[in-house]
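Lecture 7, part B: from sequences to assemblies.

Below are the input chains for today's worked example.
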Amino acid sequence: MDQLDLARWQFGITTVYHYIFVPLTIGLSALTATLETAYVRTGKEHYKRAAKFWGKLFLINFAIGVATGLVQEFQFGMAWSDYSRYVGDVFGAPLAIEALLAFFLESTFLGLWIFGWDRLPRWVHAACMWIVAVGTMLSAYFILAANSWMQHPVGYRINPESGRAELTDFVAVLTNSTLLSAFPHVLFACFMTGAALMIGVSAWHLSRRRHVEVMRPSFKLASWVMLVAAVGVVLSGDMQARIMTEQQPMKMAAAEALYDTVAPASFSIFTVGSLDGGDEILSIRVPRLLSFMATGTWDGEVEGINDVQREERAQYGEGDYRPIVPVTYWSFRLMIGFGLLAAVVAAGLLALTGPPGRWIRKLWPRRLRPSDGETVPRWVWRAAVWAIPLPILGNSFGWIFTEMGRQPWVVYGMLRTADGVSPSVPASTVSLSLTVFTLLYAVLGVIEFRLLRTYAKAGPEAPAPARDPDDDGPDDGDDGHRPDAGENADESAERQLAFAY
Amino acid sequence: MELTTVWFVVLAFLWTGYFFLEGFDFGVGALLPVLGRNDTERRVLINTIGPVWDGNEVWVVAAVGATFAAFPEWYATLLSAFYLPMLLILVALIVRALAFEYRGKRVDPTWQRRWDRCIVFGSVVPAFAWGFVFGNLLAGLPIGADKEFVGSLADLFTVAGLLGGLTTLTLFLLHGAVFLALKTTGEVRVRARALAGRILLAAVPVTAVTLAAAGQESWAISAAAIVALVAAGVANARGREGWAFLGTGAAIVLATATLFVLLFPAVAPSSLADANSLTTTNAAATPYTLSIMSWAALAFTPLVLLYQGWTYWVFRKRIGVRDIPPAAGAALTRVAQ
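Predicted structure of the full complex, as structure tokens:
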């Protein structure tokens, strides 16, 4: 492998890995904040336990998300210095503003949230988590602004002297049509991801009839969020596909492995055969669907790979402008497949646990019917646990599709990926860092997964007796708890912290 | 003043903020096994920085991001030239971040010992490596005519790099010890104060040699840094912990100021030819980008300082062994029964 391949593998591995945790934290922070708000509004103890419990799972993910996020910001300069030189004038600003605007907000207010349980008034404490949630969304917006610019450069000029991209209109970068469709798509997908974890973990406990008073509201909230978010993902994805067809025709053609321009174009759900469009052994197709996805009409024309290749050759000179078609074809389908499956799971769970469930239950064969006192049979809860990985997989394949589909360009129509690598860094160095990151991430992934599973299974803390909510350890040092569960800190030195590392 | 100069100052400010704040986090982390004799004491140490370390770390994210936006050439040259040191820093910061979050999540001495090692590694390595990077940067790098680094890893093993690394390491250790004396009660506080006095004996000569070797033009700032260190030592010996912390903080601020004063107007001087040096003008972004960034910085930096300051106010209380509740992992063992 040469330096380019190594640097690309490194970027791919570190980015996909980082992005396992990002949507979880974006989704879970908002969900946790919602539950804590319910606690502030109603004063019901089980909402507080829910907020603490989901907050804990959120933190386990947040830590690894932040830690791996550092790599992203350094990586452009380390392994892609020519890219950084070429587009830094445009690309650097959203990254810098993200740090200034979003990261400071997230990390500072998260610190306040974690350690502030007994120090801050209730509503201030809940507000901290809302601020964290807003911070994560702002982060997403600015990062997507940078990425959307790579997909569809706007608001810039090429300086004839230096030959580099220069920013001319920052507002155009922040209102890029690519960004305005990608941002809701990504954000809804993040809510699906957070909600799926909540559904899965709640279902696991509900199947054992444990922590019902915490898990039931969590489950209900997450199911609704998942369903609404899924609809949002579909609608925004539809908008995005059309913009993509217009701005990156090669990507759309490669998504379907469509070699020759056709109208109307069918969408193949599954194809066995050679991907150069030569001989199909088996293909399940939905007629006219691709036309609708790409153009919004049922008989619209969709350009094929060969035709786009001819056009781009005429525009940019000799070269191969085709991405790796098997990768784009399958990642596109897997993204849609996992996303839809997650949506179906949410809709199904809502139907079974909601009012329609009463009629559905009458139709079930006896063996599958819920036993007394249960709304749904146990196998439904058990199956729901498997909803957790679905959106995560959808996210990963979505990013693999959108980034691989842009190849050979790093900035579409402007700069080739091959021209972006650092000339001063030898391949051996990149292979070393690739190895280090991969091994480190693998170990940390295992640790994180086990920890998350342990804490998810342990469930929320036991309900506090009617006094201060701190765990009483095996030691004494109790200074006579007042009977009311006061939440503002009394400043006596004997009091233990409500939370400590 | 030129916008490029303004942004050079902004970056100096961001790096200074990072070293001042994260400096004591690194110090606390590095001193974990020295000052924490048992698990509870180690948890006291970690909890002094618990609510704030992550917010402090963002200063480096902001500094690197702002370098990318304001001086793309500097960002590209700096990070590609120091590829392996940066890799080491990243690995260190990753394991440190996870160690803080995960170490108390299980009640298992082996588990905690491993994460403690990660905290020490993740604090000592960046504390040394940042000084190593900036020491080398100030001394000059082999930069060719196309602004590319043309050297190898061996070119980075210089006296300047070593001195820079030792300076940041000793200053951060001292800063961390003084911070702990300020933020803890009981045994740990007494020990931290005594240790700060001992570290000072190394920090003063190392810093003095480095600053003297760095250059004479900024002698006034360099001298002030040494005075601040000595004053910190006096205050520490008298048990004036607040003043001691201000002293070590001032020393870090002044030492960082020395670095940037000596760098200016270059941002990455070339050791091969002066014409190859990256300067605030030839490495900068366009005036339009710089003005966008200026408005963003003007609007949001005061806000950041305000709420970060508020965090320090909320968690102003000293903590000691008595304040530490059972670890989160302890709740798990109860659930398991």
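Note for the exam: Chain B has a mean pLDDT of 89. Keep this in mind when comparing with the next example.
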